[in-house]
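Summary for the lay section of the report: proteins are chains of building blocks that fold into shapes. Here we show the chain for Transposase IS116/IS110/IS902 family protein and then a coded description of the shape we predicted for it.
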Amino acid sequence: MKLTTVGIDIAKNVMQVHYIDIETGEIVNKPIKRAKFLEHFANRESCLIGMEACGGAQHWARQLILMGHQVKLMPAKFVKAFNVRNKNDAADARAIWLAVQQPGKAIAVKTEAQQAVLALHRMRQQLVKFRTMQINGLHGLLTEYGEVIGKGRAALDKAMPIVLERIADRLPSMLLDTLREQWNGLKQLDAQIAEIERRLREWMKEDKAAKALMEIPGVGVLTASAAVATIGDTKVFKSGREFAAWIGLVPKQTGSGGKVKLQGISKRGDVYLRTLLIHGARSVLAHAKQPSLWVEQMLKRRPLNVVVVALANKMARTIWALLAHNRLYQTDYVSVKPA
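The coded shape description reads as follows.
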């Protein structure tokens, strides 16, 4: 049975729906209020529903799947190519309707537990960003009064008491008190970040897949938990190579007339997970006492950063293989291409 294709442009209060009625051939493009949205699809036959992977999309996708519909979440950049005229809700819904009928890699619909893990990662990332901003702000403010402190958190913590004592006689107390509060606020941010990491470690004790990924060199608590939650269903990807390409750890291709040029990595997909993998690969190269033969050969003929990205690509493929085949990590494992 052919499914009715539906494009939905979701928003906070009004959802724009676009589809063609199979019985009458009428083009339907109408807004539906949030309270009536699920009711509209409750008594319909199974549909293929396309939505942009934006805020709230995962929630609505789970609800629609429970009703028996098929849901395909697509990146906004993929959908944008199908909106050729004005930018409004009706045009966006039509563009999504066109995009969902094209072949392309869908974004996995995640469970609430997987989204909870990713939420912890996003909040931790935000706190780290705030902490970095606050450190840089203190450096900049003190420079205005001739107090130059070395880079990094350790240099700031070491110099701050001395600097505050030195400038106490020539600057107003209201500024000194504020600087001291901002400096002490860094410890509060440290505590919040550490608490989130503790909760992630507690969650990993109950998740076998995340514990298995921890055995991979360069994969820690953050990378393992983020990978499990981001991938969702491994069946979305046909191979580890496809997963690595989805993250953006493969060369970007440009060319014409049969001549293809390879450039830097494409940087597509999940920026956060790609960053974790690259940092993990860099730590392996920096701290490994005996690098593998593959790494040693790569370092002889390629720059360091290229080797880092190549190792991150290899780590991504390994992560997918362990999750897809439910295996444990083996250092000397050699993959064999099926006949």
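Put simply, here is one thing we learned. Residues 173-206 form the longest helix (34 residues).
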